[in-house]
Records
---
Amino acid sequence: MRWLSPLRIVNAPLHFVTDAFDLRNARAHTPYRATVGGLVRGDTNGLTFRRAGGPAWISVLANGDVTGTPPLSHKGPLRVEARNANGETASATVGVEVRLPGDKLVAELRTASFTLWHSGSQVAGGREKEIRFLLKSAVDVVGPQESSATSTRELAEALGWDHHQAGTDIGVISRYPIVEREPPGSGWLSVATKVRVRLDDLDVVVWNVHLGYNPYGPHDACFGKMTQDQLMANEERSGRTPQIKAILQEMRPDIADASRVRVLLTGDFDAPSHLDWTPGTRRCGHNPVPWPASVLPIQAGLRDSYRVANPDPVATPGTTWSPIYPVFTGGYGYDSHIGEPEPQDRIDFVYFAGPLRVSDSDVVVEGRPAPVPGHGSNAWPSDHAAVVTTFRTP
């Protein structure tokens, strides 16, 4: 797991959410526009922006829009200053990568699955911490869960990115244009959404899901001591098995076309992976457990990006549940186990299909999260770790 430096939330001074970040890529000789207008916190009354240094081709408008037409030769980062009505100032170093004509606009695509934990409402300054994580991680496409109907839009507006909010739970946020959006499905498909992202010269189909959470397989295996047959029956009862079957059925045309249009599947699956419950790990005394929510995507032609980059589940377990629940706090029919170790599992995923190449994949939190109930001031706004995968786009 990679630990990012902690974030300090200070109410008084005007400040950018982070003092260095990148905007979307530009192409030489092509008009460019992005924005930093939503990335300042503090007293933003009368806020204006200006270019304080950097390449001459870039203009910074008073509203924070970054515009211009880059030449073939591009030198150095941009320096942006924000000023409020009281005369307070804040500045940030902003990167814009300029790609040459004929080169891929996005040579590396960074993708994240990120559970917002009730829109970041469970920690102080949660929204700012979410934005800062997305900027520091330099992600391009994000599959958020627990977005509470508006957070996908609000995050995208702050970042100056594109978005699709599907119902009250899930969505997609993209640094690059979303050119197709599918409305929320019904029945088992209500937990999934799909968009098409355009990277200038390449389209990527992005699915994001949030599967059912109860009953929860690791609790059944570790507390309930269930047999494999009982575990499989409960996976069906939770809705996860019929949900992933229905989603993969809808994804079949996309996966079949993945050599032309790349495919990503992000999500909080609320289930472990069979690639982690192996003879080498012997989780809760079990030999391999064929958790359907991971077996079925791989059978359908998808690949688990984290396990491509980190094939040994003993050396790199990749735990995403949970950085703040080291012990079981009750519920799910297992209150007699309160105070026992919470099963730690990898339940958040970035799957892919097509000729993408995994450069790296990691699970990420920010700071050193304090466990519940002392989590309110955590730098990390979620109860899950995020998964961030970098793909090369050949």
---
Amino acid sequence: MKKSLSFIIILISLISCGNPIANYDNKKDNKLEIITEGIRLVNYGLKSSHVDVNDNNTLTNLWKEITSNKEVYSSSSLTPTYIIGRFDANSDYIENGRTRTKFKKCYVYKFENKAYLSAVYWDNKTGIGMRIRYRLIIINDKGEEHAWYGGGEDINILPDKNTDWVKYDFLFGYLKVNI
């Protein structure tokens, strides 16, 4: 009887452990599609506005509204012990007292089935051998800072609608989006 019971327990464990708990479709959430025409409902943090996607001044002002002088946290708990950096008044990202990434331009991308305001940054600090220096950032309604890399290594050539962005497999941080 003990052998049968042990066999059944082992069999149940193998079957239950062999099945994934959740089949998260990471590729679905990583897909970006640039929006280049029209007036769209654009999401940024918890806010949204109808915006002409080619009006860079308005897009820049909206981006600065959610990032300027804001802390970036490593945890969604948003407590002071988890501050890892901050955005300055120009929306440049400051890390350890230095400008890590420099704000360059805004675009609108479809991400997670919504039109999101995004910002392109020039990375002043990359690892050895890393030639791609541009980052695309989207802050969703949960305050999650999603990031992609792409666009090359020339500070004078901004990424455009043909840029192939590759998503990082981790979040860059969290912002308070309810203030």
---
Amino acid sequence: MHLALRPAVWLSLLASATLAFAADAITPTAKVELFNGKDTAGWVTFPTEASKDTWSVKDGLLVCTGKPNGFLRTEKAYKQYRFTVEWRFTKPGNTGVVVHMTPPDAVWPKSIECQGMHKNQGDFYFWNGATLAGGTELKDKKTGKTRGYRLGKQADAEKPAGEWNTFTTVCDGTTVTILVNGKEVNKATGANLSEGFIGLQVEGGAFEVKRCTLEPL
């Protein structure tokens, strides 16, 4: 037997889930490696079934095939942190670090994408209700509705495909800063998100990850 819930009830349940999610966001107090070099313990894949062969661990490296589109995200939500991933493309491709990911999981959820695409590392994309101060509005070509916002990188510090790049995202309140190989390349301010899951994006490019380090500010 299925009982239909009134819209007000659904909204109440959604609001309760959102509040619980926000209350659970962790502020790190010590440096921790989120990738243990052995498996994906502590992470969630999406889409779950389609992504079962997307990620593997070989010789201590986290390996991604780049297909299908989705992500590997942390089980826990975080706020006020510095997240560093050391990665490389085997050939030019596309990925990203997605921060302040908000439930429900989707391609793509309400979140802030820190672009990791080859030759574009450092761009920002704010998706599905995420906003910032400034940026360029992105509209759906068919509906004309706003899809998100883009803020292009202000500098370039990326190494060629095949070499390891160190990509750092600093999340401090409503400000998100991206550093590539130690150089600040972009900063977004006035975001309407300040906490959430952290994800590694799958978007067509095979890549390898050496480490995922979370640190307090």
---
Amino acid sequence: MPEPTLRPIGADDLAACTAVFYAAMEELQDRRREGRWPRNEGALERLFGRLAASHPAGAWLAESDGRTVAFGIAVERERLWFLAFLFVEPAFQAAGLGRRLLERTFPSGGPDAWRAQGGVLATCVEAIQPVSTGLYARYGLVPQVPVHLVTGTPRPGALAPLPDALAAAAFETLEAAGEGIVLADALDELDLGAVGHRRPVDHRDDRDEGRRGWLYRHRRSGAVIGYGYAQPSGRLGPVVVRDGSMLEGVVAHLMTTVQPAGSWQLVVPGPSAALPALLRAGLRLDGSPAILSATEPMLAAERYLMRSFALP
């Protein structure tokens, strides 16, 4: 069998990348006798497309006999390089193809040059994938924080409500009142403090895909204390607060802003102040955790909920 060739991902390749994702993921789930995730090819293709469009230099696939057999997508957000996806069809694993794709998605100049300029490299890898964890660690992305998928519906009144001293304002309400610049500046400041970079492109994408954003402020002083998103699909996050003690109340409020189609789904770092409260309220840990691996600590995990495993 000839060695697969690498080329950039184009718009016409998204369906093939989605097929590789499910082939690799479902083989792993079957091998471990875990239940398969429900498929949502359309949403996954849109996600691949948005990520690849935001950083085309980080989106690559591998072909064998004209067929896509592996792909990798990484994004750059100011000083952060983040590997969002790296999947190889089972028949092509254990032959160095994942490493080849990883190296092609790295920043221009390579990981060492990126770090020398103050950059951080990071990814989320499943805890049940020691081979992948070891591959990333070779390049300095070492395990930092466990990250859990938390799902379910809280018992009524089980989560502490948003304190009366705090007010919530929908993003669209602020913009309609002429506070769009104030909102953008607040999001930038909160993101810099929580994840170390600004990310206006991700906020735009969050809203384009139907997530509704809320800004939280002190009623008297007007000081901004955080923001969060909720989506009718049940996805909740990202959420950033200045103090972890405020996280439970913000999450409780977000759960009142939309009626989810099913259960809630939150991507929660292990040290997050919200994790014990969510579990006490009746939600559950869903499957094995992922591990946030990075070249240095890059997340205020105790006061943060992630957007997804593919993008913090």
